[in-house]
Request: fold
Amino acid sequence: MLEASNNSELPAIPTKRYFTIGEVSELCDVKPHVLRYWEQEFPTLKPVKRRGNRRYYQRHDVILIRQIRSLLYGQGYTIGGARQKLAVPAEAEKPSSDSQQAIQQTRAELEDLLQFLSR
Reply:
């Protein structure tokens, strides 16, 4: 989902378990107040909060932030559009009712064939 041009502009993500908001800000070239705002707008972005309500982001959070950044700044999506774009893969995995019917029909045919062959 990330464009190569956006990836090359940003520094590599170090192999750490947790990142502070300042580190993520530098890694993603986004100001900390924008990261806090995105947490409210994108339900999948949930950093761990510890001592004194400090945020600690994990690697998958940093990757998600880079995807959000690419959608908003690189591809010109609105916040709502980016939210929908990020939600599409989850919806695409759900089979439609037509495909479910086709799967059930194929399964029934295979079971009939299995019974016929086992005689």
